[in-house]
Every structure is written in C-alpha cells, then in structure tokens.
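Q: What structure does this chain adopt?
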Amino acid sequence: MNRKLQLDFQKVSSLFLAYPEGVLDCGTDYTPATPVFDQLIKNLPRKLNLVVMVKTAEQRKKVEGLRRKNTITLINNELSTIWLRDTAGFNMGTHIVKPIFKPK
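A:
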C-alpha cells in the first residue's frame, strides 16, 4: 500500500527572515539570537529561496557569506523588530501594502 500523506499545507519555496543582530524591540535586544539564525541560514536546503532583511551593509556581507546560493539580502537600517508580519508589508502583485504598526 503506497499512500501519500495528505497535508494541510504545501511545501514552501521561499523563507523570509529579519536578521536579529542589533534589533531592539520594546526593550528586548534580539542580538543574542544571532548565532541561532546563523546556524539556520547555513543549514537551510540550497534550493530554498531565502530573503533576509538586515540593518547594515556589514551584516549583509556576513549573511551572504553564510549562504551564497538563492539568497537575497535587503538593508533596512530602520529594522525595529524581527517580526516581519509587523513591518515588512504584503506583496499584492503590483505594489506592497505596509501595515500600520503602533503597539501600546
């Protein structure tokens, strides 16, 4: 009997990350998570497209050195959180819609 497992989701072809080094959010410094992100980036399958938002050109070089194939790095010196859902916006095909992020 050869049945495939039915999943509620499809395999992803891309992963979007906000690099935590130097990111401070509501008093939380995410920099200590950097080694975990470095290992994740190194160990991702090469065929997976990776988009990483970083704060500096120096971080961009570092990330690109961890994984060269299928990696795009974007510099956003105003990156203020690792939660991209709050700051990155949504690709609507012809334009990007950015959410209004005003936490109390």
